[in-house]
Amino acid sequence: MASFTKEIKDEVTKIETNKLESIAEVNGYLLLTSNIIDNKLCLYIENNSVARRLFSLLKRIYNININLTIRTYKRFNIKTIYILEIKEKVDFILKDINDMKNHILDYSDEERASFLKGCFLANGSINDPSKSKYHLEIFAKDEDIANIINKVLHSFDLSSKIIKREKEYMVYIKSAEEISDFIKLLGAVNSLFYYEDIRIYRDHKNMVNRLNNCEQANVEKSMKTCREQIDNINYLIEHDMMMLLDDKIKLVADYRLKYPETTLQELSDIISMETDYEITKSGINHHFRKIKDLVTKDKEK
Length: 301
Hints:
- Helix 2 crosses helix 3, helix 2 crosses helix 4 (about 90-105) and helix 9 (about 245-260) crosses helix 11 (about 280-300).
- The protein has 11 helices and 8 strands.
- The protein is α+β, with helices and mostly antiparallel strands.
- It folds into 2 domains: about 5-185, Homing endonucleases (Endonuclease I-creI), CATH 3.10.28.10; about 205-300, no CATH class.
- It starts with a helix and ends with a helix.
């Protein structure tokens, strides 16, 4: 089963772009992954859709011949690497990359979005929202490049951050809503729908869990209050102090012992229905405070 990141990348590679957007996308990709070996520009790509995309864009933009080599490695699992080697116009391509690197913030929204698209295709990933926490990351070879990516993300009001990871720098976003905005920026509509469906489901589930936790906490708090009230009443009984209570407080105490697990509101409703004494929840609570004060004063003697 394809990963969520692969599905996004496969979808992105099928999006048609104009020449300026294509240049920005290619430059973003090359900025993160290009290697110069023996005066050749070399790319090592694992995703076949991305390899086809880069091969096509490079030929279309620069009108050059590209040597494509496919290698398959069999160790723990089968892994295919697509190697693109460029011998022509290398200096011209590197100049394009350097110009965009230095002036990317001056480019249009569409070109900056395409630049991020290239960066994501090169070294980016997004966790499957159904399986783990929300997380987007793009790895860069050095801090300067990471800062450029970070600034471009900030230009779209995405609050990305940078952290050093071993020999690389990771630009990342944790906000579920902002990751959704990033996927939208890439133009991956189907992936965006999937992501939003999962996000809505998870948010709803989390809300239900929070409500259940609050309800459970309230129940536990109510039970603790009931036990304290019963303990105080039993203390008065054991120490022959019930005669110190007036008739209304005695009535409330008797009903608490009769209905030990009811809430204050339920207890007030029961007393109001079964006796001539109309009492509110706050009235019940007031009586129990008097009982507690009497117990506390006796224990302090």
